[in-house]
């Protein structure tokens, strides 16, 4: 599918606990286990100003770069989010409602912008490279990964940092409850970042082989999945269904970010030769094919 | 592989469609007026699209009772116009994509929902919040146009739509799509009005891009889309080529631009490199030119740095349309294409005195039939997000 091979050389994720068996009752709120941010965002002033989702995103991105163990800058930074910085958005709405549009502090407005996290990462790294943000429900992370593959194929980049972030707030939980979303799903959140390259690193184990995005009221059936695997000569791939990883992550627009992190781990731990990772969110369905590099 | 533009669609405070926009530019008619879309205590001029949501629905044949955000309605209007303009008889065998951009999703409707909801979580109508996410308008456009293929949404504040065109061009060049409808849409809402006001960058007077006395921007709304096509899929003579594009991060401040315009300079320089065009060959720059002291100083420095003593004619069209945020790059792409087709220099309204440091003088009067082969269009956003696009006349 891609003109150049795409390797996943480093992964990092902030997500709800995977170790303890969660109380898997629909409607459960799964909260991301946040790290000690002091290590990951040493600038105290910057850390304090950041809202929770920004801290999660910046920390996951930083950890991803640190784990790559290389000092250089990424050539591009891509972020993905279904709903963006909800806490900041709501905070700013409350501030102009409470103050009858009087004098307002701009911080929440500034941080409500969808590309805040991508911008913050660039700012902290002093990175002048390509920077883009995808905000299309269940295609957000998939679009960012596709863009990364394009950048590598164009020869414009050899290391691309791409990741996804979504946060669960009280308001979001309450609104989605009224839509009936928690009848069959748990509510989740998380941040996951990936360092993609056209060159495998020594530690690299996973190659991103293909991405498919399907818009349809119906989920793609087994026949579709097998035809897809056949097209990429990957019939041996283990199919990873959303139910398996969403029992840990819960449901949110970019749950695929956790799914991809989980799939990379599964490949290493179980020595699987290939995984077909599936996701469905509303009418957006996506497939990501991974292979041992 | 070359990328061609075969369709354009635009709606803003100065009209709907290319001809209405050109008539306004020709007669110096800006779109500024009082805010009528929602009650607010801010008394600042804005450039509203002169049509209610019901008007827009009526024109599109959408039943009045159907709830759509204004963002989606403006987007459908301009995307449909571009799609019709491209006049692709059949999409059989063509891979058609939609790449749309916006800055605040369906915030105009969320603002009807939230004040009730925050009083009582069981209140507020759900269909007023169902279009909150940025993808909603994109999905609505796809559904209205009957598109079933690739779609995605980009949101990088005020450079959003330019980034949508850039991704579209790159996907065509890589052979992933044959046809892409790309652009952006944004509706005025209380959220952005209060946001930009809180940053103290909204002018109470009509904005004065690149003028020494400039004191801020005027907000606007609208949508602009183009149809991009691969050479192989062409069925008619295209308007222009989208031959260069680049995005670069200023990495200076979350909202402010660097004094030396590094991000803007890199974006223009890299876009021209991809196009294989030297700065001397640029015939016109449609500047970002918001009218804020910071942007125009930074952009001027970047232009000066790249073009030296050979500054091409340039202007900002934002004193006409207001700053349409996530739609600006789409609207200004349409203006750039029209500039190439008819040799247009757009006037930069309200300019009298140049900025002292750079002394740059924008074009201040409208003219047609100028020798314009190459146009650079700039779109810069929060998060240091700077994008430049290069449009080129078709070699005949």
In brief:
The complex is a heterodimer of chains A (293) and B (396). By secondary structure, chain A is α/β, with parallel strands linked by helices.
Keywords:
heterodimer; A: 293 residues; alpha/beta; Peroxisomal Thiolase, Chain A, domain 1; 2 domains; 9 strands; 39% helix; 22% strand; B: 396 residues; eleven-stranded mixed β-sheet; two-stranded antiparallel ribbon; 11 helices; 13 strands; 33% helix
Please, could you describe this protein's structure?
The complex is a heterodimer of chains A (about 290) and B (about 400). The model of chain A has no long low-confidence stretch (mean pLDDT about 95). Chain A contains eleven helices and nine strands. In chain A, strands 3-2-4-5-1-6-9-8-7 form a nine-stranded mixed sheet, with helices on both faces. Chain A has helices at about 35-40, 45-50, 50-70, 85-100, 105-110, 115-125, 140-155, 170-180, 220-230, 240-250, 255-270, and strands spanning about 5-15, 75-80, 130-135, 160-165, 190-195, 205-215, 240, 275-280, 285-290. Chain A is globular, with a radius of gyration of 19 Å. The longest helix of chain A has 17 residues, at about 50-70. Chain A folds into two domains: about 5-195, Thiolase/Chalcone synthase (Peroxisomal Thiolase, Chain A, domain 1, 3-Layer(aba) Sandwich); about 205-290, no CATH class. With about 400 residues, chain B is α/β, with parallel strands linked by helices. Chain B has one domain: 3-Layer(aba) Sandwich (Peroxisomal Thiolase, Chain A, domain 1). Chain B contains eleven helices and 13 strands. In chain B, the strands form two sheets. In chain B, strands 1, 2, 5, 6, 7, 8, 9, 10, 11, 12 and 13 form an eleven-stranded mixed sheet that branches. In chain B, strands 3-4 form a two-stranded antiparallel sheet. In chain B, helix 2 packs parallel to helix 3 (about 70-85) and helix 6 packs across helix 11. The radius of gyration of chain B is 20 Å and the shape is globular. The mean pLDDT of chain B is about 95. The chains are: A alpha/beta (about 290), B alpha/beta (about 400).
